Structure formats: structure tokens, C-alpha cells
Amino acid sequence: MRAVDAVMECLKAEGVEVVFGYPGGANLPTYDAFVDAGIRHVLVRHEQGGGHAASGYARATGKVGVCLATSGPGATNLVTAITDAMMDSTPVVFITGQVRTELLGTDGFQEADTLGITMPIVKHSFMIQHPLEIPRAIHEAFHIARTGRPGPVVIDIPQDLSRAEIDYEPVTDVHLPGYQPTTEGNQKQIRQAAKALASARRPVIYAGGGVINANAAEELCALARADRFPVTCTLMGLGAFPAPDPQWLGMLGMHGTRAANYAIDEADLICCIGARFDDRVTGKLSEFAPRAKFIHIDIDPAEISKNVPAHIPIVGDAKNILTKLVAEYRALEPDRSRLEEWWQRIETWRERHPLAYEDSADTEIKPQFLIQALYEATGGDAIVCSDVGQHQMWAAQYYHFDKPRRWINSGGLGTMGYGLPAAMGAAVGCPDQTVVCITGDGSVQMNVQELATCAEDGIPIKVFIMNNGYLGMVRQWQELFWDRRYSHVDMGRFPDFLKLAEAYGATGMRFTDKTTLVDDIRAALATDGPVMVDVRVTAEENVYPMIAPGAPARDMVG
Amino acid sequence: MSLRSGRKHTLSILVENKPGVLTRIAGLFARRGFNIDTLTVGPTDDERISRITLTLDGALHPIDQVVKQLHKLINVLKIRDLEPTDTVARELAMFKVAVDGAQRAEVMQICEIFRGKVVDVTKRSLVLEVTGTTDKIEAFERMVRPFGLVEMMRTGEIAISRGRGET
Ligand SMILES: Cc1ncc(C[n+]2csc(CCOP(=O)(O)OP(=O)(O)O)c2C)c(N)n1
């Protein structure tokens, strides 16, 4: 059979239900194979959108996302999406077409060194040199993408090789001698961690996206409840621990709660699970958690002691390790009353510094109010995708995630333009769930073309544009750190999002009145098909509290 | 945050003999700001596997972080941070020295002391070949430089562990 038909067989064997892609000369053979393959293909409007859609699909479902592009410009359009998937450890397989082998290296039409360009931003990549390699490369790519620390994998296939005839034999084993992720976790270290937790007087659990990737949310709760351990999550970890839980401190980091950041600052033991001490979390690194010892649980050994020295490092799968850690901890029967004082201190912070904002007296919609209204209208039960900016932080603060895989945003790379296509991918993966996208008037314009894809394919995402007329987050920084010299952050009120939605075949709406907002949102959610809503909010509102960049976490402002 | 050791490190890295592997390794060093001192690559007794010997300054880089990042590359099979005392390490260097007449004999004598070889002679120059530890080669360089060193080529270190075990 043709190698491209084998590609389809391999994708089916990997359980792929849908591929997001865009055709071109170099991947025409693959597109030909789609005609008979029986795999759903979503024709995106821009390869970047395809990459983010595959990522949103992967994050919402826990499966591997797949994105296809042609050579040259098709492949280079993927660069942002690949980097994004790398930074947030999202399993996505990217299959790119390449020019014919005889043209390789000649600056042929639509030739780009895809492998070279993407090398620093992938978990691994394959350049196919013989058609017989294709099936194995595909299975290896899926294996690498989904195991260990998940990540993006690129397979570049020259056009002539993809149309070659091969004797296809299903690949049943994948053996990569240089790739053996540690999953088990060292029992001695786990016991040590249990002991440290049992004797800590001011412990904090700090959980990240790794917990969600490992499907270890339940185990995280079990650990938290093995005693009264306070829990905070990173932006990527939201939903790993239920926000309504009394042991939940809120998010930590730059726009985290004071309770979370102060607790970290005064902790004597921090148990970090599937997080990486990113600078947006630590603030000034040298003053981060100055009194704490660190337990660091991560599937990626290179994360351990990268930014802070781990006193007790445990490499492995979080689900595995947490299960064992809970068992070890229970066996110790520690004195639970030792945490009394610690909780009193935490409660004072919570009472004194709750997340709050000043609501408007009239009909004006405050951005925070919009998120609260969304929470109310969705019953807290939507998959929420966001873009990057103030709206992202408000969504993180005011939409109380209580389950994993409900919060999908670009944490590591901070990619504007991520939200809408990611929501599209999430909605394709989870057709029975409400999927909303919270975006900004700036961000949405970076991949708004995917609304056409949604309209065409009947993907019913609900996009809420928090329209403040500004590149709000940048405006906030200019206000606070650049003396209010607003340079090129004014977006006006253009374009007319209502008309734009309609032009793309979606329903457009505009909300301006806070008093009817919850009902208005309900109406938008009840509308069939994709909907894009222009929500006019207060123009100059800031996200607080905040750790100024480079400042220590205890010096929160606002 | 990882500890810096202060000494020079010799990493011996076994990699799959596949296209692009060296680029991945070099790229990783460039991207993370690790500085390679020397790098040699060559085949092993198994044609599917190559060996890279790489030296870098432990005072500048957290070696365990370098090693962990290298381990993440799928084509990297094995990495050893070779202990100087348990390792035999050699470099090959060639020196072109502009000498004539009386000075020539003197340089050749130095070369002999260092157990080097003369591999080319012209009226006005000598090319000398020396193998040995980095220290020895640097010592040799100091000796011949004053005679008029035209150029010098060094291969970078290759290293193998002492005793029976595999490197
Ligand atoms: C692709 C890209 N370009 C630039 C930035 C820098 N940036 C971060 S937030 C932001 C403003 C976002 O504005 P908007 O989408 O309107 O959201 P708001 O902050 O107003 O909620 C910008 C420009 C980025 N994160 N991504």
C-alpha cells in the first residue's frame, strides 16, 4: 500500500479520532489518503490554529492531539503552537510534509528546514529518509508524546516518500533504547517525604500541571486530606484540587492570592508536585520560601533542583508516587493538632485579604464581574479556555475550577491567539460539554479566523471577548512600571466584533449591561453553534494582587 | 541552582548513530547557555552507535543539570561524567612552527622529550604531532610558541575509563 495509507492505519491504531490540518503540495498524498481513511479531519484556517486546536483537544481529553501541515510556510506557521505545547508539556504529534528528497537542500519551492527550525522546541522529531520508516516513526512519535513528561513530536515526511509503495506491517512494539522514563518513584525517598510531611509544622502543597497530566487529581486530594495540608496550585494546575475546598488557598505566584503566597513565604516544608518553580511563581528566586525545605515530585529529572534545590527529590509518575506517599503517611499516624497554629495564621490571611474588587454602582461591567457571571451562568461546569492577558488572570482567579482538564490556557509561553483555537479543539474532543473561550480584544484577533472553522464544522464554542479597548495587561504594566506612558496599547473599539462574528458564519452578540449579564450569558450559551460575544467592560481595571516582576512573593501589591 | 563543581568535566556520551544527533546536542548547549570546551565524535565498535566526548568547565555550569538535559534527548543512550583518576584521556595536536637552521634542532629535541613526531619539514618550518593529556599539550605549546608558532590544531579530548568495565 502507499506509505500515506499506512499513515492512516497507524493513526487509527493509535486511536486517533480527529486530525486538525491544512493541505498543500508537499502533503497532498496524505490528503489523498484522507478520502478513504475514515478519520475525521478538521480543516483549520491557519496552521497555528491547527496546532493550538490539537493542543486544546489533548488537554481537554488527555489524549494525543494531531496536527498536519504542509512544508515550508505550513510548517513554519506551526512554530508557535509547537513551542506552546513544549512549554506546557502537551502531547501533540505534528506531521509535516516536506519537499521531494531530490529537492532537499536546494532551496526548493516551499522548502524549509523544518527539523532544524523545530529542534529546540520539540520533545523529539523524525525526518523520514525511507518510506519503510514511516509506520515505526508514527508509533514512536505517539509513544514519546504521551509518556514521561508529555510534549510535542514532529514527523517530517518528504512528498515522494509519502507516496511510495510499501509492504505495510503493523508495528506492535516500540523500543527506544535511549528513552526510558522513570515512573515508579524511589520508595526510600517517598518514605522520607512522608516523614518530612509528618513533622512539618507549616507545610504547603504546591501542585502544577504535571498533576493534571498524570491524571493524579484524586491522589492529590487524598494526600491533602491525609492531614489538613494547605494546597495551592499554579496557573497550569488549576482544577487539580477543587477550588471550593476549605484546604484550598487559591493560586500562587504573580497574581495568586495573598494567602497562597504568604503561606509559601512562611512555610517550613513545601511539597511541590508536577510544577517547576517558574519565575512567574517564585518572584525573586533567592527570596522564595526562605525557610522551607523542598520535596519535589516530578516525572522529569531535569526539573529537580533546576531552580531551587530539592531536599527530597522523587522522580516518577505523580499518580504512582502520591498513592504510595499517602499510604506511607497514614502509617506514621502523625499528630494532627500540630497544624492548628498554621491554620490559624492562614485563616487570618484569608479573612484579611480575600480576592476582591470594587464593583461598579451602575450598569458598567467590571471584568471580574464578567467572570463571576460566567461562573454562575455555566454552573461552574464548563471547559474554560483562555487567551493571554488580564482576562486570563481574572478567569484564573474568579472561575473556581473544581475538576481537572477544565482550564486550558497558555501558561508557559503565554501565547496570545491560543484561546479560540484551543477551545475549538476542546469542543471537538468533548462534544457533550459546554466550552467557553474567555479572551481579550487583542488576543482574539490573533486567531479569530478559526471561527470560520467552527461555523463550518458546527463546533459550538462560546467566545466571550472581554473588550476593554486595550492590550490590557501591557497597559497595566505601563501604568504601574512605566509611569502611565501608554505606548501602543490602545486598540480602540475595532473591529466590530458583532459583524465579524456574522461574517464568519457565527452568531454575534454584544453585552453592555451588568444587571442582565447572567441571563445574557445564559442566552448565548443556549444559542446553537459558535457564538462570539463582545462584552464591553471597564477599560482601565488592574489585576490584583500582584507581585511586581523580580520582587519577592511577600511584597504583594494591590 | 545545581551545584557547580569547579573542575573541568569530561562527558562521555553514547548516542544512536542517526542524522541530526550532533545538532541536537550542540543546539541544547547553545540554547541553555552551556559552553562546550571541546567536542569529538567518532564511531564505536557498534556501527549503530557513536561516541561523543565533550569537555566543559564545571565552574561555569551546573554539571548535573547539563547531564540531565542531555539525558532527555531521545537518541542519547548513555552519559558518563568521567572521573579524572579513573580515566585515560588523550588529545592529538599538530603544531606548525616557523624555524630554520639552528633553532630547528632545538625544537626537534623538545618534540622528542614530549614524545612527539615530526610530520613535515621544510626549509623554514616544522609540523609536529603530539598526543597526550590536555596539560601535556598545553605545556608543549608553551615550549614551542616562542620559536614562532604559525598555527596549531587540536582535536579535543577522547577518553576511556581504566580497567575492565565499559566507559
Ligand atoms: C503573541 C503574543 N504577542 C504579544 C504578547 C504580549 N502580551 C501579553 S498580554 C498582552 C495584552 C493582551 O491584550 P488582550 O488580549 O486585549 O487582553 P487583556 O489583557 O486586555 O485582557 C500582550 C500584548 C503575548 N503574550 N503574545
UniProtKB/TrEMBL annotation, chain A:
What are the required cofactors? thiamine diphosphate; Mg(2+)
BP-aspect Gene Ontology terms: isoleucine biosynthetic process; L-valine biosynthetic process
Domain Thiamine pyrophosphate enzyme N-terminal TPP-binding as annotated: residue spans: 1-115
The residues covered by the Thiamine pyrophosphate enzyme TPP-binding domain are: 387-535
Q: What class of enzyme is it?
A: transferase
Reactions catalysed, semicolon-separated, are: 2 pyruvate + H(+) = (2S)-2-acetolactate + CO2
What binding details are noted for the cofactor?
Binds 1 thiamine pyrophosphate per subunit. Binds 1 Mg(2+) ion per subunit.
Superkingdom per UniProt: Bacteria
Residues annotated as domain Thiamine pyrophosphate enzyme central: 190-325
InterPro entries, A to Z: Acetolactate_synth_lsu, AHAS_TPP, DHS-like_NAD/FAD-binding_dom, THDP-binding, Thiamin_PyroP_enz_cen_dom, Thiamin_PyroP_enz_TPP-bd_dom, TPP-bd_CS, TPP_enz
Q: In which pathway does it act?
A: Amino-acid biosynthesis; L-isoleucine biosynthesis; L-isoleucine from 2-oxobutanoate: step 1/4; Amino-acid biosynthesis; L-valine biosynthesis; L-valine from pyruvate: step 1/4
Looking up Pfam families in the UniProt record yields:
TPP_enzyme_C, TPP_enzyme_M, TPP_enzyme_N
Q: What protein is this chain from?
A: Acetolactate synthase
Query: From which lineage does this chain's organism come?
Result: Bacteria, Bacillati, Actinomycetota, Thermoleophilia, Solirubrobacterales
Gene that encodes it: ilvB_2
